[in-house]
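ok so i was messing around last nite and threw this chain in just to see what happens. nothing serious, just curious
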Amino acid sequence: MSIAYIQQRRKPRLWVRNFFKKRETHGVCSSLYNDLVIQDAIGYKNTLRMSPEDLEILLQKVSPKITKHDTNFRQAISPKDQLLVTLRYLATGDTYTALMLISRISKTKISVFVPEVCKAIVQVLADYVKMPTTTEGWEDIAQNFKLKWNLPHCIGHIDGRHIEMIRPKNGNDYLNYRKNFSIVLLGLVDANYNFLYADVGTPGKISDSEVFNSSNLYRSLQNNTLNLPPPKPLPGRTQPSPYVIIGDDAFALSKHLLKPYSYYQINGHPEKMFNYRLNRGRVVVENAFGILSARFKVLRQSILVSPQKASTIVLACVYLHNFLRKSEKSHYLYTPSGSLDEINPVSGEITLGTWRDRNQGMISLQRVPSMDCAEGVAVREEFKAFFMT
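result:
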């Protein structure tokens, strides 16, 4: 068979498949979403968990960073298409193939722009996740914990979760204690269920106590560069006490990190009372992680990208969490009434939020014995004495 005959039979190459050509009229940004906003507002809000107004604000922020240019052969994917597909991916955890079918964008392109949009979200929402830089800012956070949870001198609750992912090239480094491949999300949360600090990307193989020790937050505490308020006596006490972060048994007790007594350290009522007061306040960090995984279902399954891209995706979820929590229009869409744990200011009883009805899908840090420094032991004893007054 001659080469000329083969070339004659060969069909002309299509630069754009017919399926993708209908993106303008049948894709995720077509009349389908317009109809949802106009005719089914509840369905739209339950899908994206944000108001149309906040979606437009976010689009204006990220557009300059994700805008592509048309070529002679292809029309560029609009920033709105990119953002909507990315938000749906974060909210539902849909595969790239499923996203291709509803958006009429090739899964190859989706796999490229989703991490790019997530990176842009983190950049434009940088002011929504940050720790105070002044002593007065930390005192405001401590005052909120005192008023809402009766925990003076508390500047945040810390916890972490393993985020599952596919086996990376150097897979053994990411194999956690559950024998799954993961990266770690470490978060510091304030009294209003917002993240003050997030560290993502530590390989799951690293021991959970070392996750905190290798973070910028730990180094800042060790170097005294956080501008924390100076130690002062707890209410009704005379011994100056430092401002502290509260964690659990996955962390080591230190001057600025308080944790409950272990089972073997409880000798009577004072230790039990101390643990009760600390654990009651820890619902803020449990709620923050619980709502995060309930709203962004991509975190409840194995993320099918590299560790670097997975870290960017997880960070985007954290920044969107604070963005929606602090929004006047999206606050009650993201966390409607009854979704979070609530404390009765009179009786002190806690009503559990509806997020607890769903499996979080994220693995907690392993609780292991750790060496407690003498300075940390003394601080905990002073807090225990305060709780008994």
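not much to say yet. Residues 135-388 form one domain.
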